[in-house]
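A favour, since you know our structure tokens better than I do. What I am after is a single protein written out in full by you. Could you add the entry underneath, on a fresh line?


***
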Amino acid sequence: MGEPGKTKLSNALWGGAYTTKSQLIITAKSTVYTENNSWIFLGDWRYLDSSQPTWGIGTGPQSSKLASNDFEFDDGTIIDGIAEADLLKFTFFRFYETALKKIGDKGFYAGLGLHLDFFSNIEDQLLNLDTMPPVITPYYAYNEHNGFEQDKSALVGLSFNSIYDTRDNINNPYSGRYAFISFKVNPTFLGSDKASTSLWVEYRDFFNIKGTNKNILAVWFTGNFTTSGTLPYMNLPAIGWDQYARTGTPYAQGRFRGINMLYAGVEYRRHLIATKNNPAFFGMILFANATTADGDVNGINLFEYIEPGYGLGLRFNISQKARTNVGIDYGWGNYGTSGLYIRLNENF
């Protein structure tokens, strides 16, 4: 959006899908730099008529993921929870837009954001209150414990944001740093079911080994914390719910969820084959990450369980000017988890 020497590349991804399971998924995500990098606009818009499994709150083996420890009904009946995935069907609308103004010439930005999340038509597929004993799910238990409705939720808030960005390219950085702090305030008078605040902190660094652009060591850290009040279940910190859904490879989106969550990842990126017209034509990566999250009524603490992910991938450069890569990754994790990923641009 300006002279290439003075303005960073912007990035926008739009997508739509209708699946054989009658799921409708529409997304629009963007990171926009205006001329001379004067402003940054971060967008995350989604509409989903979809479904997703949930495994409860906190990291750890399935046996620790009970809906609660001895869930108690109003009549005094005590029921153990489940230790398996629970499929939730839902309709979801998200509108996130954040605007940050450049401050000085050192890569600092500050600004405000508007954030709307609406879940509706939620169907808890595993819940069954008519059997003896009843089947109590993590989603049901959390809502009962915290006073949320079972079939819908709303979270509306404003955020106060600060970014430090010296990356040389947002698609595939060879050098520079990126730090992002976002404090969200979700009051009831704006439409939230319950008042709450949350904090997102993020740091990325890129080390250009020997300065040749052929060997890059990249590190990524995120922290997502509930700082006050109570968030709806589907808005609790969870892997894969970041702007570009990149945290937690190879686990499914929402595989780990908590009141607070910490995530760290590292990648080694290497160029292997050059062509006459493209010195970065073909490469590979090795990656590893770790996730930890705490619970509430189940008593799981941060760092009590740390869930690893690791894998490798191939990279094919389709635009040297923009450093746009198409990637094929395969990863492994705990509990027999594995996954194949087709990527546009780097993971972070």
